[in-house]
Amino acid sequence: MSMSCDQSASQRWLKGALAALPLSIAVIPWGILAGSLALDAGLNPFESQAMSAVVFAGAAQLVAVGMIKAGVGLGSILITTLLITSRHFLYSMAMRPNISPLPFKWRVTLGFLLTDELFAIIAGGKKPKETSQTLDRWYALGVGLSFYIVWNIATLAGILVGSHIPNLDSWGLDFAIAATFIAIVTPQINRPSILICVLVSLVASVVCELFQIPSGLLIASLLGMTVGTLYAKATGETQ
Amino acid sequence: MITLTICLMACIIFLSRYGFLEPRLPITLNASTLRFLSYSAPAVLTAIWGPIVFVSEEGLNIHWSNQYLLCAAFATVLAVTTRNTLLTTILSMVLFFGLRFWQM
After folding, report:
1. Which of A43-57, A169-183, B79-93 has the highest average model confidence (pLDDT)?
2. Best of A181, A195, A196 to disrupt the B interface by mutation (most B CBs within 10 Å)?
């Protein structure tokens, strides 16, 4: 590989890391929480770090650690993990046209890193007509890997000093997630069916949250996607 | 036991993320499936930000005193007018944390 090619790869990596920065900042308190709660649940520091390094799934980690602390059996933990993680089936299916043609090491790496955040940025940046466009792999790696690194450093911080940081969850850092996702989704609303999909997902997700329905995220997403698709079909809307 | 839990969780999560990326998996996504999936990003992302903005600890919070809602509305207006993702994110975060800091 030539020098200039290397350079542009690292520039694309940095561009991806920059795009992920608001989400990386937003995830810091959750990483700290994941580390300190794991210790609190009786995992040793090595196991607590391994959760973030190997499992690398915020919501599933936090829930599993809570269940371990409560003495819940392995079977229940795994079923809950499957429910929480089921939305990733949707992401990998949506990214199949872009990622499955890549070489093995890229597929496995991007697959391992395919979090809500990576999906948000690479799928959110896609134009509606470009479903089979070739993905900028270095940019995607920049998003995914920088996020992974921040998540693991935050977990380490949580293991080391987590119990000394007061009121971490009252800082409102989750607004960064909302701000980023609104900024990504809003420009995508260029057809009535997408507007309807977004409104249905919005109402359904809020209702699911209020009634604490498990897998509310997945239910609300599928509902929005279904209604959006049906509306487009019924009105003969072109993409 | 904890090592086993971590390993099995890692397997389940990796398979859910990687599964459909495997080219040898004998499925081809037809046009209508791809069309359905083209709604996944706006749907999933909205389903994530919706509860953050509209639900607080007390329940549904549709009032301008809800800083999440106020700043989300600001972000939406910015996104519509500027169409710039990074600018929208940064300015609405500045407003949000500015308001929080102001009230401390």
Report:
1. A43-57
2. A181
